[in-house]
């Protein structure tokens, strides 16, 4: 049970990181354009 929860948290952190990077990239491109 504990391992399953940790795996879910790891995936959640990765997804939030990817979304954060995408938002930063879109903001940078909009600034350049």
Largest sheet: none
Q: Average the pLDDT over all residues and give the rounded result.
A: 89
Strand content: under 5%
Distance between the termini: 48 Å
Task: Output the radius of gyration.
Answer: 14 Å
Helix content: over 70%
What's the total number of strands? Answer: 0
Tell me the structural class. Answer: mainly alpha
Strand/helix succession = H
Q: How would you sum up the global shape?
A: rod-shaped
Number of helices: 1
Low-confidence stretches: none
Task: Describe the fold and architecture.
- With 33 residues, the protein is mainly α.
- Helices cover 94% and strands 0% of the residues.
- The chain is built from 1 helix and no strands.
- The chain is rod-shaped and about 50 Å long.
- The model has no long low-confidence stretch (mean pLDDT 89).
Structure summary:
This protein is mainly alpha-helical and 33 residues long.
Give the tags:
single chain, 33 residues, mainly alpha, rod-shaped, transmembrane, transmembrane helix, membrane
What is the secondary structure topology, with strand pairs?
Elements: H1 2-32
